[in-house]
Amino acid sequence: MKPLFTQGPSTGVRLILLIVLSVVLMTMDHRLAQMAHVRSALSLVLAPIQYLVNFPVVAGRWFTEGLSTRRDLIAENANLKAGQLLLRAQVQKLEALESENRRLRELLHSGSRIMSERVLIAELLAVDADPFTHQIVLNKGSRDGAFKGQPLLDSQGVMGQVVEVGPITSRALLITDASHAIPVQVNRNGIRAVALGTGAIDRLELAHVPDTADIRPGDLLITSGLGGRFPPGYPVGTVVEVTHDPGQAYALITARPSARLDRSREVLLVWPRTQTAPVEAETGPEPEGPEQLESGADGAGEPVPEGGG
Amino acid sequence: MSVTRPRGGGIIAFTFFMALLLTILPLPEWAGPYRPAWVVLVLIYWCMALPTRIGVGVGWLMGLLLDLINGVLLGQHALALAVVAYLATLLHQRIRVFPVWQQALTVLVLVGLSQMLVLWVLGVTGAVPRSWDYWLPSLTSMLLWPWVFVILRDVRRRFGVQ
């Protein structure tokens, strides 16, 4: 049997030191914005683990794709072409509506503009760490121009926003996380509200909606763009239930997110054009180049020194 | 009664690495809340088996990694795991001779304690989980302990970690 405490201070003293250190760390992490840099640097260390965990998924997909037959491919190709045609037609209509909307707004001297955004496809690293916080890890980081506060979409609607940016990965908070809120409006009549995450992956709650507000089950909620973080006009969710409790000051309204939060693997990172951008500047889609981001909230969008390029 | 030189540090690191992998391994939606506290299990085992080598320092470090990989406030798991490591090293002589079901109960208490410390931090920062599911990892960790124990013991003997 070895003597237990030969070197250094006793375990108890070390424990107390470490507890104090933890508390200091937690306080710093909670209060100081500079800790974001530390985190983003440390995330580089853990990125290999996340990629490694993701590997079986990638390998499995590669394998099934490699094994799919020619006939499947042809069928899929035809499907995709048909789908693309459909989408193109819809986009044409949308563009016409967009320019009409812009003209009308100019007639009205309205301040808000329809904006076209630049997007980048990011892939989920298949990581769901804690079932009680709805966060996902993406395979794009500050190297690709991602920034803190960046909105995240999938093909169906708004997914969430980036909360932490590392050099090669970033972490996003989903709209259903209990700490997330997103300003929305009802597509049908423009009633504004704030959709709060509930911690359940298929449920949002609208906060502080007066009992008399005209909101019905089936109403589509879209981003209002009022928070300045999400671009306006994207679907957020569909109202599923409206409960009027006579004892409560507000109606209890729940909605189901439009985005497939638990299924999407490909997501879109969006670079919104700022609300204040002059109208002349928005002619057509933006040229490539990740440098045109907005200042990047709290400077967290600044690239940190990169380890491996 | 010669003082043995420490061996097998790589094996210990590897077991912790595997625990971290298991911590973030994708699970189906329904299984998410049942995920055992792998890192805590491995930590308890090594604290019990090699209390002179694995203690509060390693526990704290692993907790820090857990915080990073979970994207939560830095230091909350570090705090919890340091305390768990402290208790496990303190009790190691007793835990070692317990029958395995009694060990499992100890694990329940230790994992539960770590969860309680994390919950306390969550409460201070205002991010309390609203569901009782929060405590499920303690239960699944307890149920899994016999297997974790046997596997890690075999690993330790096979590679002569001491």
TrEMBL record, chain B:
Gene Ontology BP, a term: regulation of cell shape
Gene Ontology CC entries for this record: plasma membrane
Transmembrane feature ranges: 6-25, 37-62, 68-88, 100-122, 134-152
Topology with respect to the bilayer: Multi-pass membrane protein
One Pfam family recorded for the sequence: MreD
Function in brief: Involved in formation of the rod shape of the cell. May also contribute to regulation of formation of penicillin-binding proteins.
NCBIfam families, sorted: shape_MreD
Protein's recorded name: Rod shape-determining protein MreD
Organism annotation: Thioalbus denitrificans
